[in-house]
Amino acid sequence: MSSDENDDLSESELSSSTEFSGLEDDELRELFDTDEEEDEFSGFDFNLPENMRWERQPFDVNMEPFTLTPGPTINLPDSDKAVDFFSLFFTEETFRKMVEFTNKNARKKQAPNWQPVTSEELKAFLAVLIITNDMIVVPRNELYYLSSSERKLFHIPGVKNVLRSRKRFFQLKSYIFFCDPDHEKTEEEKKDPLYKVRGLYHDIVQKFKNLFNCSREISIDEAMVPFKGKLSIKVRMPDKPIKFGVKFFELCDAKTGYCKNFSIYAGKDDRETGAIGKTGKIVMDLVADLHHTNHHLYVDNFYTSPILFLLLRARGIFAAGTARPRRGYPHEQLKRTVLRKRGEVAWLTAREQGMTALRWKDKKDVHFLTTIHSSPVIPAWVADDDSGSDTDAVRNDSDVVSRRVKERGRWVTKKIYRPEIVKCYNQYMGGVDLSDQMTAVNKSKKQKRWYLRIFLKIVLLSIYNAYILEGHKRQHIPGGRRRRDLLTFKEDLCVQLVGNFPQQSKSTASNKRRRSADTPLPARLTNVGSHFPFKGQGRDHRCVVCERKPLTKTQDNFQMLPVWCLLVHWGRRIKLFL
Q1: Alpha helices for 77-162 (secondary structure H)
Q2: pTM of the entire structure?
Q3: Of 84 and 390, which is predicted with more confidence?
Q4: Are strands 244-253 and 259-264 parallel, antiparallel or unpaired?
Q5: In this structure, how many other beta carbons lie within 10 angstroms of the beta carbon of residue 209?
Q6: Under DSSP, is residue 13 helix (H, G, I), strand (E, B) or coil?
Q7: What is the three-class DSSP state of 437?
Q8: How many CB atoms lie within 10 A of CB 436?
Q9: Quick one: residue 406, left, alpha or beta (phi over 0 = left, psi -120 to 50 = alpha)?
Q10: Residue 368 pairs with which residues in a beta bridge?
Q11: Residue of 318, 320, 211 lying closest to 258 (CA atoms)
Q12: Quick one: which of 226, 261, 254, 220 has its CA closest to 240?
């Protein structure tokens, strides 16, 4: 949930998973799970304490210091090239494996006229995929390879000339592969719907984890990769911009949007998860490498539950988020407090567990649960103020938010009280949304191969993470702005991925067609007699060399070329048919 346009959000905006709001807990547990292959996993042995009591007693959270140093964990390349940062994730070994698997796949499927792909060509192909995703977009990929003079206005020569031909582009798109096609799959691998991308996925995720430490605030949310074809792991989200596709669960840095970890929804899993449920297991899997770091994790009400937050705190991670009625949450107790106007708050605490539950009245009631924040201290003016204007001088700007309301037929601006947890949630929950916006996969083009969409999403996540790493290496200009934005970074990356691949191919073809001025004429063009080369209409003509070639009475055997000899050609042709 981002806060790009407004500092605060209403209830409808704060609840990012409204499409699930009507479901019961048991139904929610059956919806999603992760794809981790833990055969011995038997659930989390953790339950809510029996003596857990919710009371209106103030307390202060004992906040332990953050133990990590945010930023890159390695010495970054001493270079200005975008490809050097991208290569931290997509290494030469990664490309070597992709080349090997693609060639094997083409041979196994007996691809006609297949020429083995090389690492250089595969990098050029990857550059084309990046360009055609969101940089130069046309309705169909065939339009990148227009060649007719009538449609010269729509030609895109830069993309067209990267690979040998249109046929080669679609050939690579058809046979590119990310696992060994000759490998004999085990029973577990046969059941794995993500087997085709599993190796690449694990390799890239491990690099995401190892190369960067997030700041103290992190967030977990969902992202969608569009796909409408037949696929067992496809989900339908009718209230989302992308309604059909593959769901990603991402853990991102709340400030930069760096993707630290992600998992892909792989269908229903019948393995026991314990009391935290399957949504809780998603969170625990994503933060498995962050235990005892004292991170501040922000989630929406799809994941929030008291037992999950207690388990996270036991593992050294504090958490906060919007909440819905779930086991252990004092929803009915909070509803007993009557809130008459915007800005009023009802709250309860479980002091022994260090947890606060809060209900804040905006346009609608918004529920929160937190182990990060202490119980709220509500200013006196909240209960007394009704106009929103008389007490501005005594208000702290960080404690208020402006709202437009209609009073007596006029729209007026009022300032209402905002608890600290609402401010922090709006500020730090947008990390995944930021990453998803920067790595969106184009959904307008039809794609039959679902794994190619997932591959492209992983590539785009790697590009954005590489861009963030570059920001820690290259000095910023005054004012804190980057020396190049993400679009320029992508442009430079594509140019460097292509390298000299098209220029070499083009120069080779040019040498075959053109003759240097110092090269003598071949014998077939000398001593051919008197003739006047002439450009005719169409192609039903003979060239100047026709004088030295035998003619037949069969019209189909004539050489059809646009240049013909005005004197010699027609003179000989008339004699032939006399």
Answers
A1: 82-86, 92-108, 119-130, 157-160
A2: 0.79
A3: 84
A4: antiparallel
A5: 16
A6: helix
A7: helix
A8: 27
A9: beta
A10: 322, 358
A11: 211
A12: 226
